[in-house]
Specification:
InterPro entries: Cro/C1-type_HTH, Lambda_DNA-bd_dom_sf, Pyridox_Oxase-rel, Split_barrel_FMN-bd. This protein is α+β, with helices and mostly antiparallel strands. The chain is built from 8 helices and 7 strands, in the order αααααβαβββαββαβ.
């Protein structure tokens, strides 16, 4: 079977991202892979088609697979590897939970709809003590989250997580709070948050979730433990 070829520049971006996530310099990765640091710099910065042997060497140096570097695992869910040898599950305090979610990114909104439970991914920011995201007027995150009773809000769940594939570690944070549809007179304040939905389109309805409960958990490996291939 022939190997999958990356689009121009994709391979270099994946190499650079993986290297940085492992805390490696170019010189360190080049040493691991047995290639010249200058050539590694070229691969990261320019569209290139290295040999299959070079790709396999880089994959070994990055503790990953050639298929992943070439994009063959892009559409696969994270966390498919085996657990580490000595995993520890620990509870996170509120301060640590807020630290983890404060940079913003992608989270999941969980709520009840007329047809049953629904979970929807959204781009969010954490702005002035609340989760803020944008959605479309008339969509499920609009109609299904309204009580039509003034001052009453539907309590929903919001979850953010991160998976460290290399070390078999990760964390998750769960927020419970009311869904507040931001009225026009408050839009200027939340617009300053800069939240932008990747989905694009007319998503001009801002929704705020003010946390009433925040919990989190982390899976880590005890010192000296290692991931099982």
């Amino acid at each position: 079977m022939s190997e999958r070829h990356a689009l121009p520049g994709d391979l270099g971006r994946r190499i650079a991202w993986r290297r940085r996530s492992l805390g490696l310099s170019r010189e360190q990765l080049a040493g691991r892979a047995g290639i010249d640091p200058g050539y590694l710099g070229y691969l990261e910065e320019q569209p290139a088609s290295p040999s299959a042997e070079t790709v396999h060497r880089l994959a070994a140096g990055l503790d990953t697979s050639a298929a992943e570097l070439l994009g063959g695992e892009v559409d696969l869910p994270p966390g498919r590897g085996r657990a580490g040898t000595r995993p520890v599950l620990e509870e996170l305090d509120i301060k640590e939970c807020l630290r983890l979610i404060s940079p913003g990114g992608v989270g999941r909104v969980g709520f009840g709809s007329p047809v049953g439970p629904v979970i929807v991914p959204v781009n969010y920011v954490f702005h002035e003590g609340a989760v803020v995201f944008r959605t479309a007027f008339g969509g499920p995150l609009d109609e299904d989250l309204r009580t039509h009773v003034k001052g009453a809000e539907i309590k929903i769940a919001f979850e953010v997580d991160h998976v460290d594939e290399v070390n078999r570690e990760g964390w998750s944070v769960l927020i419970l709070g009311g869904a507040h549809h931001v009225p026009p007179e408050e839009e200027a304040a939340v617009a300053a948050s800069g939240v932008e939905p990747w989905a694009g389109g007319d998503r001009n309805l801002y929704v705020r979730i003010v946390p009433v409960e925040i919990t989190g958990r982390r899976i880590r490996q005890e010192p000296g433990a290692h991931a099982v291939p």
